[in-house]
């Protein structure tokens, strides 16, 4: 779908995205090459996360801590690529993918990507620069998003023509160690005047937030909703004109809903 930005610059978002690839426990871990291949097989755009690790490599992984996905202690940013490639995801044979591997898989598919910048310990500028330079060689469709407004500011300065989204949620429910003033500002999108996002990606359970509704319903921002795990919620978001980031919905049911809502490719 083509959308007109306020400055008359067109940009494109897919009508939906598979969350961290089209994963399926216990055999297809999230953010694995198996999950991305499955998404491609079903013709699904994907959302995924990018970290910069100790040696400057870019890898696709969600958490900062490795424990949940690999059983190993420590921050992913403190590892080298050789050390990470020795690990396995969720007890399978799948490895942590390189950013390059995921881009190479999607390059000629025509399937759009939603790429989240995972900033840690103030590396927003370095991460934005590395991702932007790699994506300069990528010929497919993509947009960028981040929870960190500084990453969006950095990316806008580096590549002003690329579409960017502000990720957010109700941080009063999950403070994640943030000081109170940051909880207030991030929950209520108070740094948008600096980050200047093109769309807002807000947690589905928190979508009644007044600031979000004002931005979407009154100012015309596109709303991306994460993470959709139920068929009824998927229908709700699609009917409302939002863009779902989904998981745990079986292929048959998914395709039925997309067909019903006229969203299938």
Mean pLDDT over the residues: 94
Percentage beta strand: 15-25%
The CATH superfamily is known as Phosphatidylinositol (PI) phosphodiesterase
Overall radius of gyration: 18 Å
Report the CATH C-level class.
Alpha Beta
E-strand count = 11
Q: Point out poorly predicted stretches.
A: 1-10
Give the helix level as a range of percent: 25-40%
| Strand order of the biggest β-sheet | 3-4-6-7-8-9-10-11
- What is the CATH topology? TIM Barrel
Shape summary: globular
CATH architecture: Alpha-Beta Barrel
Summarize this structure briefly.
By secondary structure, this protein is of the alpha/beta class.
Task: Describe what this molecule looks like in 3D.
With 265 residues, this protein is of the alpha/beta class. It has a single domain, classed as TIM Barrel, CATH 3.20.20. Helix content is 33%, strand content 19%. It has eleven helices and eleven strands. The strands form two sheets. It has an eight-stranded parallel barrel, surrounded by four helices. Strands 1-2 form a two-stranded antiparallel ribbon. The protein is globular, with a radius of gyration of 18 Å. It starts with a strand and ends in a 5-residue tail after the last helix.
């Amino acid at each position: 779908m083509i959308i007109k930005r306020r400055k008359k610059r067109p940009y494109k978002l897919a009508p939906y995205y598979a969350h961290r690839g089209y994963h399926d426990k216990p055999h297809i871990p999230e953010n694995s090459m198996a999950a991305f291949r499955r998404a491609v097989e079903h013709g699904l755009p994907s959302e995924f996360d990018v970290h910069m690790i100790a040696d400057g490599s870019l890898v696709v992984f969600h958490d900062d801590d490795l424990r949940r996905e690999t059983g190993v202690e420590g921050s992913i940013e403190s590892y080298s690529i050789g050390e990470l490639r020795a690990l396995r995801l969720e007890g399978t044979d799948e490895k942590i993918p390189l950013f390059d591997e995921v881009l190479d898989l999607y390059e000629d598919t025509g399937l759009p990507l939603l790429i989240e910048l995972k900033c840690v310990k103030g590396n927003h500028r370095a991460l934005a620069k590395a991702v932007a330079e790699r994506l300069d060689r990528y010929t497919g469709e993509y947009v960028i998003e981040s929870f960190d407004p500084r990453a969006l500011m950095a990316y806008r300065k580096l590549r002003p023509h690329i579409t960017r989204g502000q990720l957010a949620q109700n941080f009063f429910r999950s403070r994640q160690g943030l000081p109170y003033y940051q909880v207030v500002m991030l929950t209520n999108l108070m740094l948008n005047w600096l980050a200047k996002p093109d769309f807002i990606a807000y947690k589905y359970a928190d979508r009644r937030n007044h600031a979000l509704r004002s931005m979407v319903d009154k100012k015309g921002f596109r709303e991306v909703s994460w993470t959709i795990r139920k068929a009824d919620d998927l229908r709700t978001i699609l009917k409302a004109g939002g863009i779902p980031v989904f998981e745990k919905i079986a292929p048959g049911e998914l395709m039925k809903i997309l067909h019903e809502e006229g969203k299938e490719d």
